[in-house]
């Protein structure tokens, strides 16, 4: 399968302040706050849901196509993704805006002050999927991830009009979307991804029941945190897959993106939905054990040893032949 992933491309600039924000605020002067914090550390990490998912797929050897918008400062990030098996030729480069970025300072009490600059991400709405499909010789599936909201709507409508199967994955953008937008984005989706909380929010905002939503999509995939994932299709028993044991719980950021990368790679290989979910859970476990969303290394033998321990020899034999 040739899979394109649309979604945000961003960098995170994370700083640590050794004191407490609360000690710096004067109660009767909050209407005129002017503060500067001298920080001890700066950690710049690559991120964005589209880039994170593609990085994971690249680690598994499935050569995904990243579709999104970045700034002229994307060169180093592009080189990183290229080295890790991602096709970045369909990334739009803005002539006037920087790549999206999240700037955040965390204090000693783990309180945070942050800002998100959308930047070039707003130009993702100008990308036409037909040009992407023409360049790579056709698309078998497009994952429509969290991005500029107008881009998400445009990509969804284009997939429907051109008959390209698509996966709906609202993640962070679901909070700002209306019920009408969510109904548009999920109707006729081949796959619908969400976590448990987002699942309830989708049902509340659309006014559709769980059964109604399931009838409008091919497959509903709901991540359950430490309990794994549930995969549902109309008229079939639900598939529930647990998570492998963790060596450590370091940082949960990007775990959902890694699951999607593994699941989509499994679809690309043509394995069953259960196997695809198992691959996703295994990759997500590697990410939760690592600080940063793209800092893990997939070592084939170690990956397969842990996968075999979690899911058994039969499952491992089906996956081993595909793993690059």
Can you characterise this structure?
The chain is α/β, with parallel strands linked by helices and 324 residues long. The chain contains 11 helices and 14 strands. The strands form 3 sheets. It has an 8-stranded mixed β-sheet with strand order 4-1-9-10-11-12-13-14. A 4-stranded mixed β-sheet has the order 3-2-7-8. A hairpin with a 5-residue loop joins strand 12 and strand 13. The protein is globular and about 60 Å long.
Portion of residues within helices: 25-40%
Strand order of the largest sheet: 4-1-9-10-11-12-13-14
DSSP strand tally: 14
Mean pLDDT: 94
Gyration radius from CA atoms, angstroms: 20 Å
Secondary-structure element string: EEEHEEHEEEHEHEHEHHEEEHHHH
What is the structural class?
alpha/beta
State the end-to-end CA separation.
Answer: 15 Å
What descriptors fit this protein?
324 residues, alpha/beta, four-stranded mixed sheet, 11 helices, globular
What's the helix and strand layout?
Elements: E1 3-6, E2 10-16, E3 41-47, H1 49-59, E4 65-67, E5 69-70, H2 75-83, E6 92-93, E7 100-106, E8 112-117, H3 129-136, E9 141-144, H4 149-162, E10 166-168, H5 179-186, E11 191-195, H6 196-206, H7 210-216, E12 219-223, E13 229-232, E14 239-241, H8 255-269, H9 273-288, H10 300-311, H11 313-320
Parallel strand pairs: 1-4, 1-9, 2-7, 5-6, 9-10, 10-11, 11-12
Antiparallel strand pairs: 2-3, 7-8, 12-13, 13-14
């Amino acid at each position: 399968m040739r899979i394109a992933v649309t979604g945000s491309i961003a960098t995170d600039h994370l700083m640590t302040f050794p004191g407490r924000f609360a000690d710096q605020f004067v109660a009767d002067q909050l209407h005129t706050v002017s503060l500067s914090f001298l920080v001890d550390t700066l950690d710049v990490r690559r991120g964005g849901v589209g880039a994170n998912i593609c990085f994971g797929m690249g680690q598994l050897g499935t050569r995904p196509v990243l579709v999104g918008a970045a700034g002229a400062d994307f060169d180093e990030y592009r080189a990183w993704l290229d080295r890790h098996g991602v096709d970045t030729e369909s990334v739009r480069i803005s002539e006037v805006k920087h790549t999206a970025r999240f700037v955040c300072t965390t204090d000693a009490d783990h309180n945070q002050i942050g800002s998100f600059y959308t930047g070039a991400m707003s130009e993702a709405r100008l990308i036409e999927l037909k040009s992407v499909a023409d360049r790579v010789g056709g698309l078998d599936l497009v994952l429509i991830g969290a991005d500029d909201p107008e881009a998400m709507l445009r990509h969804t409508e284009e997939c429907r009009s051109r008959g390209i199967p698509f996966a709906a994955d609202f993640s962070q953008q679901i909070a700002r979307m209306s019920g009408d937008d969510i109904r548009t984005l999920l109707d006729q989706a081949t796959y619908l991804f969400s976590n448990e909380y987002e699942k309830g929010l989708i049902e509340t905002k659309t006014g559709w029941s769980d059964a109604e939503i399931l009838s409008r999509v091919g497959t509903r995939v709901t991540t359950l945190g430490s309990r794994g994932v549930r995969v549902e299709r109309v008229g079939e028993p639900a598939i529930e897959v647990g998570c492998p044991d963790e060596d450590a719980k370091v940082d949960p950021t990007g775990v959902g993106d890694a699951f999607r990368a593994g699941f989509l790679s499994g679809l690309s290989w043509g394995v069953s939905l259960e196997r695809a979910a198992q691959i996703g859970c295994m990759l997500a476990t590697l990410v939760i054990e690592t600080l940063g969303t793209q800092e893990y290394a997939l070592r084939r033998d170690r990956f397969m040893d842990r996968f075999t321990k979690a899911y058994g020899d039969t499952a491992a034999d089906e996956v081993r032949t595909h793993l690059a």
